[in-house]
Model the fold of this input.
Amino acid sequence: MHLSYRGVQYDADPAAVETVQLPAAGKYRGLRFSFRAPGRQLPDHGTRRLSYRGASYEAHL
Done:
């Protein structure tokens, strides 16, 4: 996918995520739709120790 940001051109290759069809479905404004969910559990990246303007904090990524 070819993109640009503030005049800088670059190519992006988004990651493919396997999904599964969920049994729930519905209708909105006359159109039918269904729900999809990730096919497998996404990895937990754990906690990182970060700082912002000198203040330290932990972020769960």
